[in-house]
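Q: A reviewer asked whether we had any structural model of the full assembly, not just the individual parts. We don't, so I'm hoping you can provide one. Inputs are below.
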Amino acid sequence: MASTFKPLIKASRRTMFYLFVVSITVMIITPLFFLISLSFLSTDASYSYPLPLLPSLSENYELTTGERGYLLSLEQRNGEYKTMLDTDDMEKMAVYMKTRLSTPISIPELEELTARVDHEGTVYFKRRSDLLNNYYTFFQITRDAGPAFIRSLQIAGMTILISLSIGGLAGYAFARYTFIGKNLLKFSTLFVRMFPAIAIALPMVIILAKMGFYDQPIGLSLVYSIGSIALTIWITSSIFMGIPESLEEAAQVFGATKFQAFLRVTFPLALPGLAAAAMYAFLGAWNETVSAIILTQFNPTFSVVVYQSLVGATGQVNLAAAGGMVMAIPSVIFTFFIRRYIRQMWGGMTI
Amino acid sequence: MALAINTERRRKIGKQIVPYLLVLPVLFYYIAFWARPVVQQLVQSFTSLEGQFTLNNYIMVFTDLNFLPALRNTSIIVVFSVTLEFFIALLLALLINRKFPGSGIFLFLTMIPMALPAVAVGALWKTGLTTNGWINSLLTYLGILTEGGKIYWLAGSIWKLLALMIIIDAWQVIPSIMIILLAGLQNIPKETEEAGYVFGGNYFTVLRKITLPLLSSTIQTAVILRLIAAIQIWLIVIVIVGFSRMPVLVERIVYYHEEVPRLTISPAMASGYTIIVTIIVSIAALAYLWVSGAFRRKRKEV
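A: Here is a predicted structure for the entire assembly that you could use as a starting point for your response.
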């Protein structure tokens, strides 16, 4: 009797376990799902309540003669048509359909439709939604978003260059040599890494201004490198430790100099680790906001632009969501590639 | 074997100049861009506008009406979020503690909230907590709110807002602490726990006497790292609550630097608050280094 129940109990325990895992996943995913969905909603839909769960891929319209010209109505979720606009200005209608309803239409197309209205009375038509409309609009209407995006990439690029060149050398030294002061330096890198960004950013205003780097991308990448050098040392030293020194020695036996041996043997093997360090430096620079607010004035980074769009009560939630998504996508992608390192980092690191 | 290591080490120390050349750039960089600004900041905080030594900057911060609330709010967020997050994460990790098909994807998904940039998290909850936001919409779809019913999340007392901040932080942080603890749990050899059961321990005694002590270093480092991050909470507070309504320490710095930069007291206030945050975080950082064994190892080698 018991033996017939055993698999049943086992199966039900397994089901419980998976239900548990799935419910955790749902808790994590739900807010993200709404952010993604919201970033695709048209402005009109994002003001409706309750918010639609998914953006509509196309909209059904009704066009008829109105008091001031032509009356445009949009089919709602309950199947009824809601009046949106009454105008005889086709340009105005085209702009409205693009910006409020995320269904771009050309003026000739509209004129063709109104001609049919004049002829047949009421006309029904369907337009495909432009799901990326909020993303374009965010870059168009948010002051500086485009240049700030490029600037953020420049800053991240320079941060990678500075921290990989300086931190990589030290990482190699940590992996291959014993020297006086090694522990003190290890200790300082960890301490510097945990030091609050704001404590460096504030006095750096004056220092960077003297150097002519205030409000310049290079200034911010100098600040970001302080933190990412420590991480680069940590990652690269663990990489170099994993590459046996005997490989380099073997190359030297075959006539290569120490430097050639490093370049031809160790460096290629270390490339994946260096890429991880580069991605980590990218994440640090890309995600950071507080130093960027303090150290920029007319040339903000992309994260500052999104931050300002959130703080300034513009109220366009779908645009804020699109801005947040543009910030999030590179971070999530790079995190995927270096998830192993990041997990170790969160658990605490020891060089 | 020991001899081999010794000669190896001597040979390495023999080529002394190379490692110093390799670490020299880091040293210069830290002196120029870390030590210098920090020292300048410290000196400036004791200097009056006329260039004399003064304690006024600190007195001004300590007598600021928002100082104690900021300190209190920050402490509440830190204490509650870190303990709550840690216990829930531990519970989840203990319940999940096994390999299962799809665990790879699950582990990556759990990393996403922490990997998100602060501004993206701000956008996420800002769009959720407005009265027409996605949280109320979701509750309506689930039938918890009646048609047209709304919850005013951001209205009401500061305690409610603090609770919201703690919940948002929990959403972001619990999954990643959970995977850290999960990794720690899976590093514990099965035999040690089995031995506990063999000697008559039940689940809880084994947990208390064997599993948790073996996890302790993972737990300590994770908790202190979280502590350091939680002390510096600011962006989500400003995005959700706005300036000054629920002051926290770093929010004050941004406030004096960005919102009211023209006030004569602003530079002094910003720098005063910065020093206070720096001191608190530095103490936490030293605690981390002590726990992670940075001091111990040093003593052994010297």
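A: Points you may want to mention in the reply: The longest helix of chain A spans residues 2-40. Chain A touches chain B through 93 residues (CB under 8 Å).
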